Amino acid sequence: MKKQDAGSGKQAVKSGNSCSLPPALCFQDALVITSAEFITSAARPDQYPRDESPEVAFAGRSNVGKSALINCLIQRKKLVRTSRTPGRTQLINFFKINGSFMFVDLPGYGYAKVSQSLRASWGPMIETYLDSRENLRGIVQIMDLRHLPTPDDISLWSWLKEKKIPAIPILTKADKLSRTKWNPLVQTAGRILGISPDDFIVFSAQTQHGRNELLGRVKEFILQSGFNRGKN
Ligand code: GDP
Question: Measuring from atom 25 of ligand 1, which residue has the nearest CA?
Answer without folding.
Answer: 173
